[in-house]
Amino acid sequence: MSSIPSAKGIDSTLALLRNPYEFIPDTCRDLEGDLFETRILFQKTICMTGAAAAEVFYSEDGLVRAGSMPKRIQRTLLGEKGIQGLDGEAHRHRKRMFMSLMASERIEALENTTRDLLDRYARDWQAAEKVVLYDEVREILTRAACAWSGVPLPEAEVETRTAQMTALFQDAGAVGWKHWGARLARHRAERWIAGIIERVRDGSLQTGQESAAHVVATWRDLNGELLTSKVAAVELLNVVRPIVAVSAFIAQAAHALHRHPEWRKKLKDDEGQLEPFVQEVRRFYPFFPAVAARVKRDFEWRGYRFPEGYRVLLDLYGTNTDARSWDAPQEFRPERFQDREDNPYDFIPQGGGDHHKNHRCPGEWIAISQMKAFCSFLVNAIDFEVPDQDLDLETGELPPMPKSRFIMRNVRRRQ
Ligand code: HEM
């Protein structure tokens, strides 16, 4: 058996923090392979990239999620004891809860809520001197996510809850005061949502049976018991928070439309082009760099031994831009999705494998439908100017966003 190639130096934490999207693929390229060994946060870690690596990551029984996520990510982005850390039957059972929210009529209902909000917001945009698109989208999606999930959102709380949801996904990977801000946001958001769960349970809050609040509040685990209100809050936030996070993909989509004006016209002339366009945005723009698992029992892959206890990181962005799977991967070319067969391992912006059996994101259809609704609105429903501004992507951020957050001026509603 060969030994796994090692990265330079003893610990790669700083190199990964400095270059979260390129560190794994660049190191793999330097070492001429799909994987290497290093230490991250003092722990022995195997980093992997590419479709073949994704296939083993999602199909190998020796890999588990329990204990794989760094505590700092659990205390901000994900919360503790939610689905992300479950394995086996407990995971599959909890996953049914999330998948039950994803019927096509429900995804359409969320899209309609967003479209109504967009109509309302665009009226104010016409009177505004400037519109910062990313900020508006975050607020629209916070309202839409809460309404759709059965979570009451008083008008006076819209700004605070939008800021809390944003801190959870935008500042989770940060260090210093931003990280502490994200921890505080998690604490407050969980307290808020646990209160909602308790009100659904005691009947003082009536929500539709199909709403996420109702489904999570009444879900029974494998042992037949309700989730504790803390775990239920983590899971309901696992619905609300990532819907708001789709705002980052939408700002990236606006950036792509601006940089590739020929696609504005294509989308206007043919709604059928929306899907390839948003898929290419999800492939081309970085979002989450990697996902983590842990080796529960030794296994072998391609003659390499994966020793028990090691953490394994699968590179998402590098896999989406791997030249072995994609022609000219650094070029923005939506047409590549026009007649592409689905492959669960080479296009993994929201994880790979099977939605029901693996940890693949159950919210992919929501992300796609929301992105399509916003893109369609930007090209068909309004005219606007894009003044001079710094549209470079802020590479120090996760996910990288246009530095100016995409400013529009002279917004006019088309009749
Ligand atoms: C901004 C768009 C989104 C991105 C980039 C994203 C990305 C991801 C990624 C990378 C994973 C982990 C996959 C893995 O561990 O293998 C994941 C899991 C998950 N996502 Fe998303 N997601 C997005 C939107 C959504 C939405 C809209 C929802 C729900 C409404 C959602 C709910 C979840 C849940 C519950 C999990 C855990 C699944 C499991 O552990 O089985 N996400 N997502």
Layout of strands and helices, then pairs:
Blueprint: H1 13-18, H2 23-31, E1 35-40, E2 43-48, H3 51-59, E3 63-64, H4 71-78, H5 88-99, H6 104-127, E4 131-132, H7 133-149, H8 158-170, H9 177-202, H10 212-218, H11 229-259, H12 261-269, H13 274-284, E5 290-295, E6 299-301, E7 304-306, E8 311-315, H14 316-320, H15 364-380, E9 382-385, E10 407-413
Parallel strand pairs: 2-8
Antiparallel strand pairs: 1-2, 3-5, 4-10, 5-8, 6-7, 9-10
The structure holds protoporphyrin IX containing FE.
Report on this structure:
This protein is of the alpha+beta class. 49% of the residues lie in helices and 11% in strands. It has 15 helices and 10 strands. The strands form 3 sheets. A 5-stranded mixed sheet has the order 1-2-8-5-3. Helix 8 crosses helix 9 (177-202), helix 10 (212-218) runs antiparallel to helix 11 and helix 11 packs across helix 13. The longest helix is centred in the middle third of the chain and has 31 residues, at 229-259. It starts with 12 loop residues before the first helix and ends with a strand. Bound molecules: protoporphyrin IX containing FE (HEM). Protoporphyrin IX containing FE is lined by residues 83-84, 95, 98, 238-239, 242-243, 245-246, 249, 287-288, 291, 349-351, 359-363, 366-367. The site of protoporphyrin IX containing FE has 24 residues, from helix 5, helix 11 and helix 15.
